[in-house]
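ok trying again, last paste got cut off:
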Amino acid sequence: MPLDVRRDGPAPIARQIADQLASLIRGGTLAAGERLPPVRVLAGFLRVNRNTVAKVYRDLERAGWIESSRGRGTFVTAAPPGDSRPRGDAGALAAYADRLLAEALARGWGAGEVHALIDARAAERPQGTRSPRVGFVECNASDLAYFTRQLSARLRVPLTPVLLADVPGRASGLDIVATTLFHVEEVRARLPAREVIGLMAAPDFRTLDDVAHLPPQERIALVCATQEGVESKERSIRAVGIARTRIRTATLSRPDRLRAALRDADVILASPKVLERLAGQIPARVRVIPFASVLGEGAVRLLEQRIHAWRPDRRRKETRRR
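nice, full thing came through this time. structure:
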């Protein structure tokens, strides 16, 4: 669930969250019946006051967007207010427009200003200009498929998946290439004549919800490929109320520490890629929670802007400058 709170923006934080949640529901990203994160989980992840999120939920419930059930949680209503979403290609474009409007509202823009901006950008775009060929690069097949699905749904453009091992060969016909921040420098080195954009991947709310509801006596092993991944994900876990003393961290590069973490754990948190590497090493009694991630909204917006601004001769000009 992509949400982006701007503390320096013109709109209050509660309004930003409410507008973006309503837009996600209207556009179908949050489907009818889907469970929203508990107040403390969403507040912890966004690093905002719990009362702010509680007020957002109350306001959205009064407006008919969501409904709460004691003991079960908060869910998207079956028929959101004014739900007249078009279907097919028009529905996809409507979802894209909803995201644009949510971002504009969060920045204090009105619908009329957004309309004028779209008219102006459309007038600047040369007629007959083809769209850029966009690709996404990742180092393993499971994460490549996972992130490509996420990005395709949000960009609404064709996206070519490419394994890192196949770069530059498979990426030679692409105009714009995206990858996760962990691989961005390597991809840029292999594709010096291409525009390469790094995307930040953050923990999914559903994962944090599962972690927040773990019994307090259970010990957690957090395993990542790198120490940077450990530090990032541990911050997210602690933000939803898990004490540092319950968390044992390890990386794949330290087998001794990894064995100790797995031996003492009741629960293991790791990405699907890392879990593949740990096959056969996890004790049968240990519960596994895949630590799924979502791509950062800010980086995806940047990619959208670059796709819109791309011109067929841009790459050739950049190559000549080099």
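cool. The longest helix spans residues 88-106. Confidence is low (pLDDT under 50) at residues 83-89, 315-322.
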